[in-house]
Amino acid sequence: MLIRTRSTADPRPSEITPEAVYLDRRRLMVGAGALALAGLAGRPAGAAAPEDFAPLADVAASPLSTDEDPNSFEDITAYNNFYEFGTQKEDPARYAGQMSTSPWEIRVEGECAKPGTLGAADLIDSHRLEERIYRLRCVEAWSMVIPWVGIPLAAVLDRFEPTGNAKYVAFETLHDASQMPGQRRSVLDWPYREGLRIDEAMHPLTLMVVGLYGRALPNQNGAPLRLIVPWKYGFKSIKSIVRIAFTQEQPPTAWNMSQPYEYGFYANVNPTVDHPRWSQARERRIGEWGRRETLMFNGYADQVASLYSGMDLTRQY
Ligand SMILES: Nc1nc2c(c(=O)[nH]1)N[C@H]1C(S)=C(S)[C@@H](COP(=O)(O)O)O[C@H]1N2
Ligand SMILES: [Mo]
């Protein structure tokens, strides 16, 4: 996301990782080889290393994965948007370590038969974990390919038995400036909030993420539980969730509240609807030079276009 005072959306050349650092999917399968490769290529001091994160057991590969090569662990954990820790891309890697993520509970309430709390550890233990390699397209016109580990959000929400009045689902991030120094500044109206229509929340592509690269989720990526909605701009994929509410009305969302003419509720990736200040037709894949064409619904049109039939996506952006 961009605040108005910033002048460029693009990563600086110094933030672009050399090709040799990439871990492709096959190297991921033999973790030790991948680590050796990262070591040879030279990781910057202080950067997160995969071995710092606990491996997740019994992760099944998902047929919903893209066949594109994932970005490196280093790209994924060093170039982040997580404004609770600062507005620069390297701030989350630097500061998110001060957030305590265990124990962690999500309060679930609103239009459901069984409101309650959800412990992150219990959730991980009681569901089958899937690896889903998804493109993440940031509204700032860059993208990454990330091997997430998660649980279909529908399976998580079903536990609380949403009622027929549940038309939307609202999500909130932790609000605690003692752990999140970025919240001392009113860059956004904290806590960070997001929301989905119930059919979007229940769509099989929507994932409650608990890890990446087969390991527990790094704090800078939204530990211990964050959303991924792969056909929407990255800002819909809210991190470090502490509250979920089923609602009858469309819930307020952080970026829409802050800059409604720039960031809509739907935020579907759409190369034909430009942001007021820049084109959305192309994107830079982090780690690559040049640009790729942005795909309608981030490449997931076959699966999700029907959710929006009859809607004017120029107006409901
Ligand atoms: N709580 C919270 N969630 C957030 C953000 C944020 O600032 N705060 N940034 C969003 C944006 S703009 C993007 S592009 C993605 C980035 O996810 P990543 O850093 O794991 O790649 O997180 C999203 N989720
Ligand atoms: Mo973003």
From TrEMBL:
Catalytic activity: L-methionyl-[protein] + a quinone + H2O = L-methionyl-(R)-S-oxide-[protein] + a quinol; L-methionyl-[protein] + a quinone + H2O = L-methionyl-(S)-S-oxide-[protein] + a quinol
EC number assigned by the record: 1.8.5.-
Cofactor: Mo-molybdopterin
Record-level GO BP terms: protein repair
Any Pfam family the entry gives: Oxidored_molyb
Primary enzyme class: oxidoreductase
Coiled coil: none
Known role: Part of the MsrPQ system that repairs oxidized periplasmic proteins containing methionine sulfoxide residues (Met-O), using respiratory chain electrons. Thus protects these proteins from oxidative-stress damage caused by reactive species of oxygen and chlorine generated by the host defense mechanisms. MsrPQ is essential for the maintenance of envelope integrity under bleach stress, rescuing a wide series of structurally unrelated periplasmic proteins from methionine oxidation.
The protein's name in its UniProt record: Protein-methionine-sulfoxide reductase catalytic subunit MsrP
Organism: Rhodospira trueperi
